Amino acid sequence: MITIERTDFVSVPVRDLEHAKTFYGETLGIRPNPHAHESYPEFETGNLTIALIGASEDFAPKPTGIALRVPDVAGARKQLEDVGVEFDGETFDTGVCHIAFFKDPDGNGLMLHRRYAPHS
Per-residue pLDDT tens for 37-55? Predict the structure, then answer.
């Protein structure tokens, strides 16, 4: 068996790097990695890097979401809705967390997430 220390980054396919950089950096407010190569922009969430990858001709968005932890799902959702981000349904309460699903401009799944109950 190998030893996995942690997950360093996830790749997100996008059709338009400039548009995606604006969405992740300005709309979502995720800090860009200033050392990333301009052809492979990266955004730092604190514990995981989101790496934008220019898509090939057979582009398909990743439907499963990256959970973006926020202090207040309702407040963050309102801020994003105010700038035109559309959400997929109502905020979901799982009994241990709140989740609000949405997509980036290329259809990749994202979610606002906040756990309010401790792990059992």
Answer: 989 999 999 999 999 999 8
DSSP category for residue 73 = H
Q: pLDDT (tens digit, 9 = 90+) per residue, 62-104? A: 888 899 999 999 999 999 999 999 999 999 999 999 999 999 9
Q: Which residues contact 26 (CB under 8 A, 6 or more apart)?
A: none
Burial class (CB in 10 A: 0-12, 13-18, 19+), 32: middle
How far apart are the C-alpha atoms of 69 and 53, rounded to whole Å? 22
In the numeric block, the tokens 């997929």 are attached to 88
CA-nearest of 77, 72, 75, 71 to 102 is 77
66 neighbors 109 (Cβ within 8 angstroms): yes
pTM above 0.85, yes or no: yes
Instruction: Give me the domains of the chain, ranges plus CATH numbers.
Output: 9-115 (3.10.180.10)
